[in-house]
Design goal:
Blueprint (H helix, E strand, L loop, with lengths): L16 E2 L7 E2 L3 E3 L7 H10 L4 E3 L4 H8 L13 E3 L7 H7 L4 E5 L3 H13 L11 H16 L6 H18 L7 E4 L7 H8 L13
Parallel strand pairs: 3-5, 3-6, 4-5, 6-7
Antiparallel strand pairs: 1-2
Length: 214
Amino acid sequence: MSASSFQPVPSERFQPVPSERDGGRPRPPKVFGLGLTRTGTRSLTAALGVLGFDVVHYPVDGATYRTLLAGSARFPLLESHDGLTDITVVPYYQDLDLAWPGSRFVLTVREEESWLRSCRTHWERPLPDRGDGRDVRLESDLQRFLRAAVYGCHAFHAERFRGVYRRHVAEVARYFADRADDLLVLDVVGGEGYERLAPFLGVPVPDEPFPHLN
């Protein structure tokens, strides 16, 4: 599935849509990155920040973990942020679509063999102690939870990951099949960037390079 299969229609910056869950009151739409690990989700998050969207990459806070353990996709962070990215979103994107009508979704993709090599390297690295006050044990528990939910395993397994990648891209394509204006498939690693992302979100293309973070 190539990114070029999806050609979203440029639009004005999206507007709140009334939600029946909240008595018809408008809820501001969100932006969600539903790409798998090592597909450029961190770069996407930085780019969304440049475009004016306060989006959280792979949240590892206690409230998020408790929410997931309770089987809910009502992430507390979404009350104060514009969206989420990375595998935190992957198992719950359909729930988030229902909870936040009018939201936009960005599926980051990557050439398959390159992606598998990057995943292997990433999985072999231990969790770092960043010295920023994060609870390393909490982060480890959340990592195990999400890896099991998304990949069905905790350790790297190339063929399993390959199947997960292909199924995820295909399932997202089917889910948004009649909603091309709500989904952007973006190959950040392959060089795509603001020229596609900014029009999709209805904001100007910034005069600066697209961020590429590891």
